[in-house]
Amino acid sequence: MKGNVLVGQSGGPTAVINSSLAGVYKTAMERGFTKVYGMRYGIQGFMDEQYVDMSEHIKNELDLELLKRTPSAFLGTCRYKLPEIHEDKAVYERIFELLDKLDIEVFIYIGGNDSMDTIRKLYDYSLLVGAKQKFVGCPKTIDNDLAITDHTPGFGSAAKYIATSTKEIIRDAMGFSYKKKNVNIIEVMGRNAGWLTGAAGLSRSEDCEGPDLIYLPEVAFDIAGFVQTIKDLLEKKDVIVAVVSEGIKTPEGKYVCEYTAGSSTTDAFGHIQMTGTASYLAQLVQSELGCKTRAIELSTLQRAAAHMASRVDVDEAFSVGGATIKAADEGSSGVMVVIDRVSDDPYQSTTHVFDVHRIANDEKVVPRKWINKAGNYVTEEFLDYVRPLIQGHYTPMMVEGLPRHLNVNMKDYDWVTDTKSKK
After folding, report:
1. Is 0.85 surpassed by the pTM of this model?
2. In 388-421, which positions are buried (b, 16+ CB within 10 angstroms) versus exposed (e)?
3. Sheet harboring 182-188: ordered strands across?
4. The domain containing residue 184 runs over which residues?
5. By the 8 A CB rule, do 198 and 215 touch?
6. Is the pLDDT of residue 416 over 50?
7. What is the rounded average pLDDT of the residues 119-146?
């Protein structure tokens, strides 16, 4: 008889992170595992014995489909950095004590770079103590910066939302352009990798000229040069739309957002809080050029917009979740599931596993050849890479005009009658 599965979600959520969770649960049940436990708030919550039996929340196929359409992290996440084994062995002893207590056979962690670091450390400790558990990473990040895998679940839906929002912002700006000069600066997530920011270029189509400028963190950002470029463009047209990554840096290596007041906070991994890049640049342009400006920070909207989810992204996230269970059940451990692109037309992909030591703490950035020579736009090759990932739509389950989501705290809700059960 097989043991149990423990699954957790870590780091920033995505529009499809719960689709991977659904894939883990469904495949684990199909393969005969006894229970699937979900960590509440990742490994940090698990050490406080915060976990749930997933069968209490997924009663039927309708719940499973609802989970796939629910944004954010159903189980809750954390940003907790496990110490190195030699630094605090007691932390690992506590974790493995709980794993044994719950008869865990497979440990799945859904997350990005930092989460794969957790898988690496737990796997390495399991080898030291001869533990029975298998440890497999399930990729997730809108940033698309995990090494080895062609792309990550979550990226396609975020890219779709960003391209759509950029197109709508351009339309809005054009509507106010009569005898007025205005500059709109859109800030997109991306600390050191500009995959999301570059996706704004997808808005360029038959009915939209797309943004005028796109700045990625892979190329040093010249603040004075940016202002001059805006000035030159304003001599030719009335409306300017520029898209910038939150992580653009000066040639000296300073994040532009560090010129604002909101960048002093850091997380457990030492990452500074990214905010205010567009606001700073908009104020600077207004001060220098005297034109109307607007800063638009997409912020959490780009990772929470399940109503704009790509069908390709949802289906792949579900498939990748299932592949983690399959890999562990067939003996793999210390690995992450990666996506291989088979073809673009028609788009097809497959999965395999790869040593997590080659992935953890690495960062995949946009190739320089996919950014134009001036460093202020992406190439057609970049857009050809992203375009297949935003295809299709996953319709939300609508109730009274709004999307219905599955909530871990609403297990007594009767989804058929939309009323509280009488338990």
Report:
1. yes
2. bbbeeebebbeeeeeebbbebeeeeeebeeeeee
3. 213-215, 239-245, 182-188, 292-297
4. 156-304
5. no
6. no
7. 98
Instruction: Concatenate the DSSP letters of all residues of 19-38 into one string.
Output: HHHHHHHHHHHHTT-S-EEE
- Statement to judge: residues 49 and 131 lie in one domain: yes
Confidence of residue 302 (pLDDT cuts 50, 70, 90): very high
Q: Do 300 and 332 reside in the same domain of the chain?
A: no
- Which tokens in the block code for residue 170? 């351009």
- In this structure, the strands spanning 335-344 and 347-355 are antiparallel
C-alpha distance from residue 95 to each of 2, 41, 282, 316 (Å): 20, 14, 48, 30
Q: Are 9 and 74 in contact (CB under 8 A)?
A: yes
Q: Report d(CA 60, CA 78) in Å as an integer.
A: 28
User: Mean pLDDT in the chain?
Assistant: 93
414 is a domain residue:
no
The per-residue pLDDT for range 199-253, each reduced to its tens digit, is: 999 999 999 999 999 999 999 999 999 999 999 999 999 999 999 999 999 999 9
User: Which residue type occupies 332?
Assistant: S
Binned at pLDDT 50, 70 and 90, residue 408 comes out as: confident
DSSP assignment of 353-400? EEEGGGTTT------GGGB-TTSSSB-HHHHHHHGGGG-S-----EET
Give, in degrees to the nearest 5, the angle at Cα 80 between 75 and 83: 140
Regarding predicted confidence, which is higher, 395 or 200?
A: 200
Has 143 been annotated as catalytic?
yes
More confidently predicted of 266 and 14: 14
Domain count, the chain: 2
| Radius of gyration for the chain, computed over Cα atoms and rounded to the nearest angstrom | 23
∠255-267-264 over CA atoms, to 5°?
A: 45
Question: What six digits make up the tokens of 55?
Answer: 């069968």
Catalytic residue among 63, 103, 117, 143: 143
Q: What is the DSSP string of 303-330?
A: HH-GGG--HHHHHHHHHHHHHHHHHHHT
Tokens of 316: 């792949």
205 and 114 within one domain: no
Burial of 81: CB neighbours in 10 Å, binned 0-12, 13-18, 19+: middle
Q: Is residue 422 domain-resident? A: no
For residues 98 and 161, membership in a common domain is answered with no
